[in-house]
């Protein structure tokens, strides 16, 4: 199921504003990510291979988990129209098939003159942080998104 869209403009943002998304990691998600990216590392696809690793079972691609941050940025905070500038990622623990990943994005800083938002990004499983980092995004203003509505007072 895709996240519901929520549109926020730069003027709507404030430090501390946050949004969370939950996703159960399915085997089909991991297989699909491998197909799209070409990363067919058997630690993600073969239970037999993964059983002999320190993880003991298949794990999701780290960048698949990171991609869930993109889902929040593009659909909820700030939402449609936001443009990624950069992202840092710290992989802290594996995500296994069947895990529920909680992705939280929080506004850490606003740069009004450039319409940028620095966002704290955290992914956790059962309360344990599995990935964290920061994103920098460009966020449209209401005037940029709909100049006519702003001029007519309908924004």
UniProtKB/TrEMBL annotation:
GO CC terms in record: fatty acid synthase complex
Annotated Gene3D superfamilies: Hotdog Thioesterase
Output the GO biological process annotations, alphabetical, semicolon-separated: fatty acid biosynthetic process
EC number of the protein: 4.2.1.119
* UniProt cross-references to Pfam families, sorted A to Z: MaoC_dehydratas
| Catalytic class of the enzyme | lyase
- Which superkingdom is the protein from? Bacteria
User: Key word Lyase present in the record?
Assistant: yes
Keywords, ordered alphabetically: Lyase
Location of the MaoC-like domain: 23-109
Q: List, alphabetically, the InterPro entries matched.
A: Fatty_acid_synthase, HotDog_dom_sf, MaoC-like_dom, UPF0336/Enoyl-CoA_hydratase
Which protein, by its recorded name, is this? (R)-specific enoyl-CoA hydratase
């Amino acid at each position: 199921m895709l996240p519901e869209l929520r549109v926020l403009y730069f003027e709507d943002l404030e430090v501390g504003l946050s949004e969370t998304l939950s996703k159960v990691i399915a085997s089909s998600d991991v297989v699909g990510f491998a197909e799209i990216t070409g990363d067919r590392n058997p630690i993600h696809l073969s239970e037999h291979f993964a059983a002999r690793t320190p993880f003991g079972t298949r794990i999701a691609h780290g960048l698949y988990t990171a991609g869930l941050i993109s889902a929040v940025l593009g659909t909820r905070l700030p939402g449609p129209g936001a443009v990624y500038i950069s992202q840092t990622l710290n992989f802290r623990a594996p995500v296994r098939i069947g895990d529920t990943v909680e992705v939280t994005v929080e506004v850490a800083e606003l740069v009004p003159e450039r319409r940028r938002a620095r966002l704290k990004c955290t992914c956790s499983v059962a309360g344990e942080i599995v990935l964290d980092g920061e994103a920098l995004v460009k966020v449209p203003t209401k005037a940029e998104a709909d100049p006519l509505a702003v001029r007519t007072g309908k924004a």
